[in-house]
Fold FAD-binding oxidoreductase.
Amino acid sequence: MAEAFFNEVAAAIGAEWINRSEETLRRYGENTMPGGDRRPLGVVYPGSTAEVQTIVKAANRHGVALYPVSTGNNIGLGSRSAVHAGQVVLDLGRRMNRILEIDETLAFAVVEPGVSYQAMYDELLRRGDKFMVDVTSGPPQGGMLGNALDKGAGYGPYFDHFGFSCGMEIVLGNGEVLRTGDGALAGSELPNWHVSKYSFGPILDGLFAQSNFGIVTRMGIWLLPRPPAVRSFHFTYPDDDDLAEIVDICRALKLSNFVPTLLRVANDLYLCGSEHPSPEYSPGNRTPISDAGRRALREKDKLGAWTVSGAFYGPSMAAIEPQIERVRAAFGKSGKATYIPHEEALGFHALQVAINACSGVPGVGELGLLKWRPGGGNLWFLPGTPMVGSIANECQRMARRIYAEYGMDYMIMNVCSARFARGLHVITFDRENPEENARANTCYEALARAYAERGIFVGRAPLDYHALHMGQAMPAFRDSCTAIKAALDPAGVIAPGRYGIG
């Protein structure tokens, strides 16, 4: 069955675009999660939407499961690994990596799955740096399309990467092509497909975010005109429970949209862990860092128990200064915050990461978190909590207790918008030690249960826990996903099991 599939695909697109070598299967099965690597059956590299159609139709005929990836840099959430071993990885990014269009009048780009944040940044720079794309603080080689479909986000005004996408081309499970929005009109030469989000009929785009209903091969991405000046601001706070004050201030600043960026509220270990491995961890001491160790790191890096970062845009640095003074007054009322100006922050590598993120500049700064403990284990737990200071403190105390119970170091950055904050909880562990690997897994499951009991769901999830989170959803939600899967991919050939569907 599988041999017949590979033979048919090789005849259609060329044998050179199929790889089943031992080294390739090992690399594509790797991830950072406790559940172990997932060896694929093979890897196929399509070069066009038409070739994706050909592969999907062959998968239907031969009963082969496909697992599409863009650039495979979803570190901490699955990397390039399929949900289940034995699926065929469809690497869209190897050959489908073109920027198909950049419209400088309407400020949008059209990309294939392999276009990375770095590639888009470089192309916009080449064109005169008139526009910026909102970036993540993850790998610069991460795919823009894949990140948007997984509901990834950044930090600037266009932080909602799926929300600021417009118009998709999708290969459905039966091999047919669907275009969303104005793209559903055949033969249109106007740019409406990628600027008009709410066209006639149901909005189908959302069906293809965090699902396995189809394979997206093209997407429009809106671009932000690059401001002449970006001036950041930063505040440190000395105590863990200062989070309540911080969240309440951030809410007021964001509800009025006074601050155009999101506000990054990172704890000490999230920032210091990007810079150093744990100074206390060793094979003989697999316990979390001590409070004294945390204080020493804060003093060394001149950071707080919490550090707040954001930015303003304007015609010049001087023109932005009144806004800086207003935000300083907001954070300065209690006397607990210490202000770090933009010029000084440029000398702090951990704060330069925040400046880059707000400036649309991709970087590798936060990848240092992977080295906090040896062994390569890394998980992300990503709940969204309401912007109420008292609730924020309750949640962080609950999470700290769970981390401590399972011997993990509490690392988090709260990315604050007007009404909710995405909590970027990092679980870094020694994946090569079976006992610690098991503790990391149990820690994640305990966090998932504790937050769900409070009515708080995750926004994204590592592959190991897709089924767990789908099981937490109400039956009507699960049944609806199953029904849509059956309608759009009746043979179930596209990523069965992804996000707990099919």
About this structure: The two ends are 21 Å apart (CA to CA). The chain has three domains: 2-94+491-500, 99-225, 229-461. DSSP finds 15 helices and 19 strands in the chain. The chain has a mean pLDDT of 96.
